[in-house]
Structure formats: C-alpha cells, structure tokens
C-alpha cells in the first residue's frame, strides 16, 4: 500500500511530466479556456515567435468580459472592447482554435460554458487566464487561473511550470436550512477563514452539506475559493457529477462513458490522507449572508447589524472596516435589513446558471420590483442558460416584475462593459467581488445569493428571503 493521497495529490501526480529545479514541476494541462481580456498578448507572442498552438483541440475561446448584454445585432460602441473581441476572433481563426462567437448560442461566461459543454471533467487539469477558473473544481478537476505569460506557455506547450500547493480541507457538516444556498455557504466560509485563509492551498470541500449540493451549487462554492485565497477548490466527483455530465456534447459517449465513470470513481482522497489545514463548519449555523464591506470577508448574516469598527480589536481589521463603511456609506450598528438598494444584478460566473435563475424567479413570481429601485437585471450565464430559462418561462416572470432580461456575458460583475453601477449607488449582486469600484467607479456592492438578490429587488432593501417565503406559506 502506498502513501495515502488527497484528491489534489492524485491529480497532480497523474499530470507531472517532470520534476525540475527547486519545487518546480512541469504539469500537463488537459484543457485551456481562453477569453478576450488575457489572451491577446499571448497570441501575439506566439505569432512573433512563429509558434503554433500545441493542442488547438484542447483549447476553446469565448468572449465574455467585454461583450455588451444588449441585443447582439448592435455594433459594440466601446472601441477597446470591440478590438479585443475582434482580436479573439482573428486569433482563434489564425491558430485553429474553436470559438463560440458572440452570436453563437453556446457563447457565455467561460466558466459556465466549459461545464455546460462537458469540457470540464473529473481528474483533468484545466486553466484559463482568469482567477475564477476555480469554478471547474466542482467536478473534481484541478482548475486554476493563470496570468497572460502562462497563457502563452500553455498555448505553446500544453504544459505549465508549477509549485505544488498545500492541501486544505473544508468540511461542512449537516444540512443547510431552507432559503440558505451554496452562495451563503461560500460567503460564510470566507467570513470564517478570511480572504487569506486558504493562501498557498488547494481546498477540498467535503461533508454532508457539500455532497447534498447540486453541480450548480458546487460550482458556486468552488468559484469563490479564490476569494478565500485558495489556488483552487475541489469537490470529489460522485453520482451527482456523473448525472450532470452524461450526454453533454464533449462528455465521453457509449462504452467510453462507462469506462470514464469507473475511473472517475477513484478520484477521492484516501481515508487516511493528511491535510495541512482542516476547517469544519456546521451547515445549520449558516444563515443567508450579505457583505457589508469592500472585501468578501466583510460579511454577516442578514439578521445582523453593520459592525462597529470601534469594537474590532485587531488594528488592521479595524481600519479596513472604517474605510469600508466610509466607502459603502453605512453607519455602524444599523440593521443590514435597513439598507436600501438602488440596483439588483443577477448574473456572473458565480450565480448565472439555470438553477440560480430558477431560485430568483421563485421569489420574484407574482411580485414587482420595488418602485424605489433604479434598475434590476438578470444576465444569464450563457446563451444556452438563456434559452433554457425562456423555455421554462422564467424570462416572463422577471420581465413582468420589471427586470431587464439580457444577453449573456460578465456584465455588471465588473466594469469592463457598458453595464455599470453609477458612482455612490448601491447594488445587491450575485457576483463574487465587492472591491472598491468593482461594478463601476464609486459603486457600492453587497454580495448575496440569487434568492437574496430577488428579495432585495422586490422589497427595495436587503431582506431575509425566508421572510418572503414564510409570507407566501401563510
Ligand atoms: C479580467 C480577468 C482577468 C479577471 C480575473 O482574473 O478574475 C476577472 O474575470 C475578474 O473576475 O476579476
Ligand atoms: S463573471 Fe465576473 S468573476 Fe466571472 S469571469 Fe466574468 S468578470 Fe470574472
């Protein structure tokens, strides 16, 4: 019997091409996703060096960050965005890489598209010039973000020079309560361990509450691993994973499928594997979460109050809280549920999959967006999510309530396209980052789950979604 290994150790060992000087190893990369923001220079350098893409068949290009979410027939107004999207198209063509262009129904946020197409599979190594590549870890794939020079390295060689991370395990025991979602779980974990809590580690999420999550929920959880400082997040594949993958365009078919599933079943941490860090949380203690500050760790349960920095012992945390409250325009001690909202954004690679839209629509059905709101919008994560939602009539529920129903893209998750929150205005957002200026200069972001965003939209302020579902039941 060999040494007990974690899931991460196993995937790492299977992809190690060579051990190099120091801690460096050369790792084989199975899949490479490419978007318009971090690829132009990489392709340009290949071009200058006269190198081809080593495995065009393992590479997929999708524009997402800069695409406007208004009808695709209109030209892109912003010249820089238009140029980046043109470049992606040109590069994909020149290097023989498949592209899901803006008018392709399969286009969407790269981290939603990969799983949807069955490109994301257990045990693979996957990279993208994008930090939220951690999303794909939900399938038990080792997936992480890389920089532009690494994008070039992978394009040219299909390998990467890497230092191995440490192993961390986050176990969520028990079951989540009604109205509490994977997003709340992710935010609660970050609230507990902080945004540097997993630095230098790959997190494996385990426990009954994680096992009970759908693939959509697991993707939300793994998506935010990077917000906890982790290099990647992992959930060991199981029947939920296989059921999601079966029949997807790039999933193994026929006999190959059965073989694949047999192999995938071995992708678990050995019972005696040792983790460098272990954290355990009881799911029953997790309430719907909302961030009050400018870092995902500045988070609290919706029933709580905005903290008073004066009560924070640690000087650095105190000053950070003071700065955050100043930027967010909030008073210490005010009830989080008294915070009035100007905008609601339901979208992003964290929460724009079909299940997210269903959860939000459930709350919105039969209600109206509060008159005090400036704008509320839903941006499906991909063209296929959009089509599915329309087939289920979710678009009607949102539109009838006063929501804007858009074309897929990163949208208001970050200010790289026309969807921005104006300075000083406040947004309840299902995205993953609430840094200063993230949704536009001066924008104020509160991170929440899709159900909580819907509850904020129909009440005009941050609201415990469980209050609305109780009302309905009464
Ligand atoms: C633009 C891109 C490089 C960036 C990332 O790496 O995450 C973006 O997707 C984000 O969410 O901030
Ligand atoms: S949706 Fe947001 S977090 Fe996700 S890739 Fe796009 S910009 Fe990054």
UniProtKB/TrEMBL annotation:
Residues that, per the record, bind [4Fe-4S] cluster: 349, 410, 413
Cofactor stoichiometry and binding remark: Binds 1 [4Fe-4S] cluster per subunit.
GO terms (BP aspect): L-leucine biosynthetic process
Catalyzed chemical reaction(s): (2R,3S)-3-isopropylmalate = (2S)-2-isopropylmalate
Cofactor: [4Fe-4S] cluster
Keywords: 4Fe-4S, Amino-acid biosynthesis, Branched-chain amino acid biosynthesis, Iron, Iron-sulfur, Leucine biosynthesis, Lyase, Metal-binding
Molecular-function annotations in GO: 3-isopropylmalate dehydratase activity; 4 iron, 4 sulfur cluster binding; metal ion binding
InterPro entries noted in UniProt: 3-IsopropMal_deHydase_lsu, Acnase/IPM_dHydase_lsu_aba_1/3, Acoase/IPM_deHydtase_lsu_aba, Aconitase_4Fe-4S_BS, Aconitase_4Fe-4S_dom, IPM_dehydratase_rel_enz, IPMI_cat
Record pathway: Amino-acid biosynthesis; L-leucine biosynthesis; L-leucine from 3-methyl-2-oxobutanoate: step 2/4
Quaternary state and interactors: Heterodimer of LeuC and LeuD.
Sequence similarity: Belongs to the aconitase/IPM isomerase family. LeuC type 1 subfamily.
Protein name per UniProt: 3-isopropylmalate dehydratase large subunit
Gene it is expressed from: leuC
